[in-house]
């Protein structure tokens, strides 16, 4: 038996270049084992590229990646990691039962009962050919194969995008139960911010191929404030921009709103004369994610827990 690594993912200066263009660049972070982590970012941010490297489908052009303590180049990671690709590739001519049998034959830790339960709860006939299933049914079979493998790390590329709301609710419940019962780590890319907020306790935000934010949700959210008030001319007050990190700001008429990372206490607005003429309130996770994605040039925020220590 191997000693379990405390880190499910350790990326160090990871990069991927297609021809002359970097799709992923200087990506360094670590993800503690047992977390449910969302990877969020606009189209083309580099999410599938990262997941493809982690799934050994793509070779990195730079840097290092370790999964569950094992270098991604080592075939030993194959047993420990399952990957559900965005297009859910399966053999269309196999029946559902044959697909699960293949999973059993390829995976020493295969759990047939969990795989069958997932398929049956969606009323997907075991004797149906995969090529005749609907998109959502195929996703369910692909989920069954990924879960049946009983991986330590589950990589999911937009897993819920073609599921109906009932199936989404059921499979996200199953995912959370799996994590709680077996300590599985999940990394899932998603554009559904409500789903991210509900399911995930760790976040990675990519934009333009670079990591913009990383860390536990319960540390990232309190690191931000939403400030609104009277603009100074057509600008956000200098007292804010000079003392705090402004992620995103807007001025509309005589009002401004800004999502900031306070670098110290913020003066509160009590209405008293001489008081700062603005209000500050905690933003929602969705407000933070949208601002962060809209502002790829804002300073990155990588929380201490997600920092990858580089070798001295
Ligand atoms: N095989 C390829 N050849 C050339 N460029 C590619 C290739 N695959 C991806 N790219 C480019 O790399 C960048 C990152 O793509 P990637 O698919 O990783 O983004 P993503 O964040 O997963 O996007 P989406 O949310 O749209 O799925 C994009 O600019 C894309 O055009």
UniProtKB/TrEMBL annotation:
Coiled-coil features, chain-numbered ranges: none
Domain ABC transporter: 9-233
Gene Ontology MF annotations: ATP binding
Family matches, as Gene3D superfamilies: P-loop containing nucleotide triphosphate hydrolases
InterPro entries: AAA+_ATPase (IPR003593), ABC_transporter-like_ATP-bd (IPR003439), ABC_transporter-like_CS (IPR017871), ABC_Transporter_VariousFunc (IPR051782), P-loop_NTPase (IPR027417)
Pfam family, any one: ABC_tran
Keyword flag Nucleotide-binding: yes
Keywords: ATP-binding, Nucleotide-binding, Transport
SMART domains per the UniProt record, alphabetical: AAA (SM00382)
Protein name: ABC transporter ATP-binding protein
Organism for this UniProt entry: Streptomyces lunalinharesii
């Amino acid at each position: 038996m191997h000693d379990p690594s405390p880190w499910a993912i350790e990326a160090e200066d990871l990069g991927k270049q297609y021809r002359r263009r970097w799709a992923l660049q200087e990506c360094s972070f670590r993800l503690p084992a047992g977390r449910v982590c969302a990877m969020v970012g606009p189209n083309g941010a580099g999410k599938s590229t990262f997941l493809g490297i982690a799934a050994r489908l793509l070779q990195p052009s730079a840097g290092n990646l370790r999964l569950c303590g094992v270098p991604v180049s080592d075939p030993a990671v194959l047993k420990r990691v399952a990957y559900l690709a965005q297009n859910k590739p399966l053999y269309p001519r196999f029946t559902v039962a044959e697909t699960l049998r293949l999973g059993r034959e390829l995976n020493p830790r295969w759990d047939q009962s969990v795989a069958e339960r997932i398929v049956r709860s969606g009323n997907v006939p075991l004797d149906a050919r995969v090529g005749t299933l609907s998109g959502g049914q195929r996703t369910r079979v692909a989920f069954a194969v990924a879960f049946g493998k009983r991986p330590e790390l589950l990589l999911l590329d937009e897993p819920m995008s073609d599921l109906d709301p009932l199936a989404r609710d059921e499979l996200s419940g199953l995912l959370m139960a799996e994590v709680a019962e077996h300590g599985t780590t999940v990394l899932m890319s998603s554009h559904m911010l409500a789903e991210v907020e509900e399911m995930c306790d760790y976040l990675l935000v990519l934009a333009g191929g670079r990591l913009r934010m990383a860390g536990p949700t319960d540390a990232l959210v309190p690191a931000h404030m939403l400030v609104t008030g009277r603009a100074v001319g057509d600008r956000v007050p200098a007292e804010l921009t000079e003392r705090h990190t402004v992620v995103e700001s807007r001025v509309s008429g005589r009002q401004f709103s800004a999502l900031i990372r306070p670098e110290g206490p913020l003066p509160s607005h009590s209405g008293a004369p001489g008081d700062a003429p603005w209000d500050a309130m905690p933003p929602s996770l969705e407000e933070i994610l949208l601002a962060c994605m809209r502002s790829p040039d804002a300073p990155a925020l990588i929380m201490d827990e997600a920092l990858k220590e580089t070798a001295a």
